[in-house]
Specification:
The protein has 420 residues and is α+β, with helices and mostly antiparallel strands. It contains 15 helices and 24 strands. The chain folds into four domains: 91 residues, Rossmann fold (3-Layer(aba) Sandwich), CATH 3.40.50.20; 59 residues, ATP-grasp fold, A domain (Dna Ligase, domain 1, 2-Layer Sandwich); 130 residues, D-amino Acid Aminotransferase, Chain A, domain 1; 97 residues, Glycinamide Ribonucleotide Synthetase, Chain A, domain 4 (Alpha-Beta Complex). The longest helix has 20 residues. It binds adenosine monophosphate and glycine. Adenosine monophosphate binds next to strand 7, strand 8 and strand 17.
């Protein structure tokens, strides 16, 4: 099988690593990729928001399957373009990806499907926003309706900050979703969907705030671990039955079947499981800890999903033990990351600590590896216990030097403290 993977993050780096373990995968090309991915396979520059270029590249390379990593090409219609060319695509059409592209649309689909989520008001102006804020009370949850790479959400007990975020969204012409606050720990579960059948992967937890103890602004995600020792095993089946399958059924009923990753961001509240959001793709950094533990050949699995054949797909097999992933972010992330800073110690960390270092915002300038994005590297360790995986991941992080960079020091800390 020949594959083309679209994207340039640590998520795509781990997807490629997992695909290369599949004996049926003959070759993988990535567009555009990054410095870490280029060490494994051929990378070709591309504008990921240009669906036609993606289609042309897939045709030229005569690939059997395209795997789309990020949301931008999906919203730009990459899957539509590939479908029209008869090339199997793992990733939803523009119409189905709208579950991520519009929070208001997602709310409507969930409501139709009877999926439990936060109560929400969709607001078109500041007066409506004020009424909604006062209806739900503090803590306030204010979301930009459109795509914002995890940074369009403000959760705060400061009413004026909540209102200021709403105002900034209205100023650029958007609508705003204001919700009730959901308490309880968050869990990410990825459902692999072929449009009809959904198979859930093992759960992971992401750390969205930039600072330790969940302080500071939201980011794309600062670290993750999987599986979750504190989560009852029945939750995956419950989420499949009550969240993922109803979502796939409703999208199919609407004539826009969802093929790809139904990413359910969940809150384990005192009143039960609630959906915080859906994304239309693998999550980053959760994918690093989920796919690293998947024994089932990923190429065959995603091909089966892209071609409507999941119903008879074998039960998934997982490596035992745990995976912990710590993101190293560039100085100034998330507001204004400093680019071009030299990176050293990656190979040392990999050999000394047996960690896998997945690249995100990296580039080679001559022979020198430098930062080229906000989240720079994902340092991931696997071990029989969560404690050991965590210790090794952090030992790996300690060996990597990027001036001014930062990382969270509490990834998986609470889970280790309570379950070891
Ligand atoms: P989203 O982009 O919708 O996933 O939101 C980003 C993050 O904001 C989530 O991962 C949560 O940490 C937080 N968040 C979003 N909605 C809520 C909510 N209704 N209650 C509490 N926290 C929320
Ligand atoms: N980890 C959050 C996301 O991928 O959106």
């Amino acid at each position: 099988m020949k594959l083309l993977v679209i994207g340039s993050g640590a998520r795509e780096h781990v997807i490629v690593s997992a695909l290369l373990r599949d004996p049926e995968v003959e070759s993988v090309v990535v567009a555009p990729g990054n410095a870490g991915i280029a060490a494994l396979v051929q990378c070709i520059p591309i504008d990921v928001s240009d669906a036609q270029s993606i289609g042309e590249l897939a045709t030229e390379l005569q690939v059997d399957l395209v795997v789309v990593g990020p949301e931008v090409p999906l919203m730009a219609g990459a899957a539509n373009e590939l479908n029209a060319r008869g090339i199997p695509c793992f990733g939803p059409t523009r119409e189905a990806a709208l579950i991520e592209g519009s929070k208001a649309f997602c709310k409507e689909v969930m409501s139709q499907a009877g999926i439990a989520t936060a109560l929400a008001h969709i607001c078109a102006n500041l007066t409506e926003a004020e009424i909604a804020l006062d209806t739900f009370g503090s803590p306030y949850v204010v979301k930009d309706d459109g795509l914002a790479a995890g940074k369009g959400v403000v959760v705060t007990s400061d009413r004026s900050e909540a209102l200021a975020h709403a105002r900034s969204c209205f100023e650029v012409g958007g609508t705003v979703v204001i919700e009730e606050f959901l308490d309880g720990p968050e869990v990410s579960i990825f459902g692999i969907s072929d449009g009809t059948t959904v198979i859930a992967l093992q759960p992971a937890q992401d750390f969205k705030r930039v600072g330790d103890n969940d302080e500071g602004p939201n980011t794309g995600g600062m670290g993750a671990y999987s599986p979750l020792p504190w989560l009852d095993e029945s939750v995956v089946a419950e989420v499949t039955e009550r969240v993922l399958q109803p979502m796939a059924d409703e999208m199919k009923r609407r004539g826009t079947p969802f093929v790809g990753v139904l990413y359910a961001g969940l809150a384990m509240t005192t009143r039960g499981i609630r959906v915080i959001e859906f994304n239309a793709r693998f999550g980053d950094p959760e994918t690093q800890v989920v796919l690293s533990r998947l024994v089932t050949p990923l190429g065959q699995f995603l091909y089966a999903a892209a071609t409507g054949q999941l119903k008879d797909f074998a039960t998934l097999v997982w490596y035992p033990g745990y995976a912990v992933n710590v993101v190293i972010a560039a100085q100034g992330y998330p507001e204004s990351p400093v680019l071009g800073t030299p990176i050293s110690g990656v190979e040392l960390a990999e050999s000394d600590q047996q960690v896998a270092v997945f690249h995100a915002g990296t580039a080679l300038v001559g022979a020198e590896l430098v930062t080229s994005g906000g989240r720079v590297l994902s340092v991931m360790a696997q071990a029989p216990t969560l404690n050991e995986a965590r210790e090794r991941a952090y030992a790996g992080v300690a060996q990597i030097v990027i001036a001014g960079s930062h990382f969270r020091s509490d990834i998986a800390r609470n889970a280790c403290a309570t379950h070891s």
